[in-house]
Amino acid sequence: MTFAKLSENPEYSSILPATFLHGYASAAYQIEGATSQGGRGASIWDEFLRDSPENGDTACNSYHLWRNDIELLKQYGANSYRFSISWSRIKPLGGRKDEVNHEGIKYYNDLIDGLLEAGIEPTVTLFHYDVPLSLQRRYRGFAAADSGELVEDFCSFARLCFETFGDRVKRWLTINEPWIFTILYSLGLAEDWTQPDFFRVGHNCILVHGHVARLYREEFKMTQDGQIGIALNMEWVEPVDESPAAVQAANLATERCIDWFAKPIFLGTQTNAWDRHSDIFPRFSEEELQMLNGSADFFSVNHYGTSYATGRILEPGSKLDIWTMDEVEKSWTKDGILIGRRGHNGHPHTVPWGFRKVLVYCWDHFAKALDIPIIVYENGYAMENESSMAIESIIDDTARQEYYNNYFQALCDAVKMDGVQVAGYHAWSLLDNLEWHNGYQPRFGVTFVDREAGYKRIPKKSASLLNSIWRYTVHGKRE
After folding, report:
1. How much of the chain is in helix, strand and coil states, percent to nearest 5?
2. 345-373: string of b/e by CB count within 10 Å (b at 16+)?
């Protein structure tokens, strides 16, 4: 495998500003472990993966080895780290009247202080799918028919985080990928799911974001001088040909995946793309839209891969999976040719031009008019069957190196040629982590965690490659 290294191309030297955020991202349940230690309460993931060998009981053991993680970030040349706070680690039962767990508070305080001492800016995600189990049982969590209690409980949790960590944390994300969260609920993460829950979860995610953003701006922003946003995700869907059906299907996939969430938050409008489900798709009131409009200080987007829209719209109630919950049929081949190098179980394929189109779309449709930057908070690659490879091949992760090199070049091209304002990029993920996608466990980490050796962290070559790319494109320095 060969690819032209971005760090050796003079066209990209110092193309990005010195303030560019570059680093890694992670999520609490996927790396912390210690699910029954330090006063943490149970989350819905503990229940969902209770009998699975791939549960998060120990994960990457970052609850105990967070100092090692910071050393990795320093070694990798990162100046930014995005992590999530486990709601049930600092409020074990989750509710606004429930007790605070001070052991959990100390863990995150120590992590934040350690990052800042290392010169690494923390970005905190308040919610990365781990609903406290007690709230799921009390009123069905984000699938609550009446969002009142959910909003109050989440705002109470958010307030605690702002009060406790906001003197040092200057960048917040309310919710990670509401689109994916609605899908995970639909595929078994929550019990007793019905089709209206799909829309209810997405709707409630947007409402919660709006209320938390308002809370932060009214009570904390002036004194803490921070920013708040929401981590949306967007996979690019390209028409397989120029037929009206294919173009319409591709546009519909985009409207349902990202515009559903981005329109109310950035434009104060709402999508009509789910009109075929008008009887169960909840609408926002004018007052709610007014609250939501402009409720993010930057446009956060996560991206992995690209597919083709065949032109076929699936019937409601069809057998759907993680790829087709938007009811749009997709393919990874065109005229018998694969769209790009296949990742594990197809997630993702290496298609850098799709990433560039995502950045241009988010800029042109949302960020540009508001004059706010785009920050990429997730982008990464799972190599085919990496979990069964020899350790030498895992470390020499050539396909992942190619992915990062070409995707970061696509980002630079969007900046240089399309005028997109991109303020940061975070690779997913710092560590090999747990990912549940329709029953398989890919590895996305740039660090191999050797559990048999006491959870020793072993760098992969993609981390070194990213470091060299950042040094060159931000600072004009070669190794």
Report:
1. 45, 15, 35
2. ebbbbbbbbbbbbbbbbbbebbbbeeebb
> In this predicted structure, what is the pLDDT of residue 194?
85
Query: What is the pLDDT averaged over residues 58-81?
Result: 98
For residue 230, the one-letter residue type is I
Residue that the structure tokens 């515009």 belong to: 259
Phi-psi region of 177 (alpha: psi -120 to 50; beta: other; left: phi over 0): left
The three state secondary structure string of 230-290 is EEEECCEEEECCCCHHHHHHHHHHHHHHHHHHHHHHHHCCCCCCCHHHCCCCCCCCHHHHH
Output DSSP code: residue 166: T
Q: What is the mean pLDDT of residues 370-379?
A: 98
What is the helix (H) or strand (E) element at residue 293, kind and residue range?
none
Tens digit of each residue's pLDDT (9 = 90 or more) over 17-46: 999 999 999 999 999 999 999 999 999 999
The per-residue pLDDT for range 153-174, each reduced to its tens digit, is: 999 999 999 999 999 999 999 9
SS (H, E, C) the chain: CCCCCHHHCHHHCCCCCCCCEEEEECCHHHHCCCCCCCCCCCEHHHHHCCCCCCCCCCCCCHHHHHHHHHHHHHHCCCCEEEEECCHHHHCCCCCCCCCCCHHHHHHHHHHHHHHHHCCCEEEEEEECCCCEHHHHHHHCHHHCCCCHHHHHHHHHHHHHHHHHHCCCCCEEEEEECHHHHHHHHHHHHCCCCCHHHHHHHHHHHHHHHHHHHHHHHHHCHHHHCCEEEEEEECCEEEECCCCHHHHHHHHHHHHHHHHHHHHHHHHCCCCCCCHHHCCCCCCCCHHHHHHHCCCCCCEEEECCCEEEEEEEECCCCCCCCCCCCCCEEEECEECCEECCEECHHHCCEECHHHHHHHHHHHHHHHHHHHCCCEEEEECCCCCCCHHHCCHHHHHCCHHHHHHHHHHHHHHHHHHHHHCCCEEEEEEECCCCCCCCCCCCCCCCCCEEEEHHHCCEEEECHHHHHHHHHHHHHHHCCCC
Compute CA distances 449 → 171, 351, 394, 444, whole Å: 28, 28, 11, 12
pTM for this predicted structure: 0.97
d(CA 421, CA 20): 11
Run of H or E including 422? strand 422-428
Quote the CA–CA distance of 75 and 464 in Å, as a whole number.
9
Q: Give the H or E element holding residue 21.
A: strand 21-25
Question: Could you list the active site residues?
Answer: 177, 378
Tell me the two tokens of residue 363: 């800029």
